[in-house]
């Protein structure tokens, strides 16, 4: 009996509390080297993809700012906001804002996070997630001899679906988009529009085994070596749809 295609994700235990100035590659190397796979093997292998929650990247990069009250939290959100897409009043008070932040990402509250941070603070997204991914990739390669793909992920809602999923906001050494246009399906039909968001799908798969409540902010995905590249690539910034292609750019606040 022939085997099928398989993708495996493992979220190792033991990631310590990350604070400002930590070298994430150094912090994560012993954790990743201790990861145990279903077949009994351990550590990283060529073709693996390391998916890291943006929160610990932001903490290492000192992206904590004051958030002692609603006014300070709103100020942090406004500072990260480029464009308000939609807003509505929350039942408990205050406003829920969906905005485009300075990274070009459309997210609730500009991605500013008040969970799992010291009281009186909020956490901003990494300043340049693609650059962060490149630095972590270099550091892991230097320490392990393996050059994995690296994805920095964050959680976001979806306008037509309930529930949140993780997506890639930073990437290095990963083909973030798989353009199938021009290829033919099994019936000979030429694909006209199919471009797969590979990095987002990998980030979402990794989130199934990691998460803030489990204390496992990092996962390794194996079985996607076809998406791992020698060079760092264009990064996750290339996933942001340019304005001229965005059919839904105008939000409720603009209509």
How are the elements arranged and paired?
Elements lengths: L7 E3 L13 H10 L15 E5 H7 L3 E3 L3 H11 E9 L5 E7 L4 E3 L12 E3 L5 H16 L4 E10 L2 E12 L5 E2 L15 E2 L1 H10 L10 E5 L33
Parallel strand pairs: 2-8
Antiparallel strand pairs: 1-12, 2-12, 3-7, 4-5, 5-6, 8-9, 10-11
Helix pairs in contact: 1-4
Protein name: Coenzyme F420-0:L-glutamate ligase
Keywords: GTP-binding, Ligase, Magnesium, Manganese, Metal-binding, Nucleotide-binding, Potassium
GO molecular function: coenzyme F420-0:L-glutamate ligase activity
How would you characterize this protein structure?
With 255 residues, the chain is α+β, with helices and mostly antiparallel strands. It contains five helices and twelve strands. Helices cover 21% and strands 25% of the residues. It has a five-stranded mixed beta sheet with strand order 1-12-2-8-9. A three-stranded antiparallel beta sheet has the order 4-5-6. The chain has a two-stranded antiparallel ribbon with strand order 3-7. Strand 4 and strand 5 form a beta hairpin. The longest helix has 16 residues. The N and C termini lie far apart (57 Å). The model has no long low-confidence stretch (mean pLDDT 92).
Keywords:
255 residues, three-stranded antiparallel sheet, 2 domains, CofE-like fold, 60s Ribosomal Protein L30, Chain: A, alpha+beta, 21% helix
Q: Report the portion of residues in β strands.
A: 25-35%
For CATH, the homologous superfamily of the largest domain is named as CofE-like
Strand line-up in the sheet with most strands: 1-12-2-8-9
CATH-scheme architecture of the largest domain:
2-Layer Sandwich
| Highest CATH level, the class of the largest domain | Alpha Beta
The percent of residues in helical segments reads 10-25%
Radius of gyration: 19 Å
Mean pLDDT: 92
Q: Would you report the number of β strands?
A: 12
Low-pLDDT runs: none
- Written as H for each helix and E for each strand, in order along the chain, the element string is EHEHEHEEEEHEEEEHE
Major beta sheet summary:
5 strands, mixed
GO molecular function, one term: coenzyme F420-0:L-glutamate ligase activity
EC number: 6.3.2.31
Protein name: Coenzyme F420-0:L-glutamate ligase
Organism: Georgenia deserti
């Amino acid at each position: 009996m022939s085997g099928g295609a398989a993708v495996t994700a493992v979220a190792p235990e033991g990631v310590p509390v990350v604070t400002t100035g930590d070298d994430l590659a150094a912090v994560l190397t012993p954790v990743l080297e201790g990861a145990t796979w279903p077949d009994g093997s351990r550590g990283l292998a060529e073709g693996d993809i390391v998916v890291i929650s943006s929160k610990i990247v932001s903490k290492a990069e000192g992206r904590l700012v004051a958030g002692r009250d609603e006014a300070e939290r709103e100020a942090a959100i406004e500072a990260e906001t480029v464009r308000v897409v939609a807003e509505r009043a929350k039942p408990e008070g205050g406003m829920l804002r969906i905005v485009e932040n300075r990274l070009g990402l459309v997210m609730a509250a500009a991605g500013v996070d008040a969970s799992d941070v010291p009281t009186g603070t909020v956490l901003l997204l990494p300043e340049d997630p693609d650059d962060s991914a490149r630095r972590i990739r270099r550091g892991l390669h230097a320490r392990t001899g393996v050059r994995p793909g690296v994805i920095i992920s964050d959680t976001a809602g979806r306008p037509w679906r309930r529930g949140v999923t993780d997506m890639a906001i930073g990437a290095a050494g990963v083909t973030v988009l798989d353009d199938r246009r021009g290829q033919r399906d099994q019936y000979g039909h030429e694909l006209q529009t199919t471009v797969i968001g590979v990095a987002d799908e990998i980030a979402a798969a990794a989130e199934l085994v990691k998460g803030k409540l489990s204390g496992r902010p990092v996962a390794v995905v194996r079985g996607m070596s076809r998406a791992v590249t020698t060079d760092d690539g264009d990064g996750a910034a290339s996933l942001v749809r340019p304005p001229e292609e965005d059919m839904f750019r105008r939000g409720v606040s603009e209509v």
